[in-house]
């Protein structure tokens, strides 16, 4: 009977201290949320709230997760993750440093341009291939895990080109 009470007290104490099964296994629960800030791009006189833009979920976007912060295209991914409709995913990771890279960066340059084009030349200017190569070799996010945590990743979009860093809108301004 004393052993049962002791075991119950031990379990209750562990739960009240925030020790979970994952922590006992050496894993931390990471709640990840990704959104993109979409700016106001013109038109009618906006309210203050509308002029500030809005955040949109990175729904169903995919990333590769790497150990460490020294990323190169030769690095081996430890996991591929896909966000849900709300731009969320829950991961279980041990303590350490991690790098997150969007899966679009693993497409060939021709594939990427095919999926994200073509563009009307009088409205858009496509930067040189070197811009795309720099973008493809740059991680999206590096982070350190030491405990259970929430990671909020925010990207910024530009008017009429979204998050494509090597495309510029050169057309007429919005009325």
Please describe what this structure looks like.
The protein is flat, with a radius of gyration of 22 Å. It has one domain (2-169): Immunoglobulins (Immunoglobulin-like). With 175 residues, it is α+β, with helices and mostly antiparallel strands. The strands form three sheets. Strands 1, 2, 5 and 9 form a four-stranded mixed beta sheet that branches. The protein has helices at residues 2-16, 21-24, 48-51, 109-115, 129-136; strands spanning 28-38, 54-57, 62-67, 79-82, 88-93, 96-102, 124-126, 141-145, 149-156, 167-169.
Q: What is the gyration radius calculated from CA atoms?
A: 22 Å
What's the SSE pattern?
Answer: HHEHEEEEEHEHEEE
Describe the largest sheet. 4 strands, mixed
The CATH homologous superfamily is called Immunoglobulins
The count of DSSP E runs of length 2 or more, i.e. the number of strands, is: 10
Any idea of the CATH topology?
A: Immunoglobulin-like
Low-confidence stretches: 1-22
Give the class-level CATH name: Mainly Beta
Based on Cα principal axes, name the global outline. flat
Report the structural category.
alpha+beta
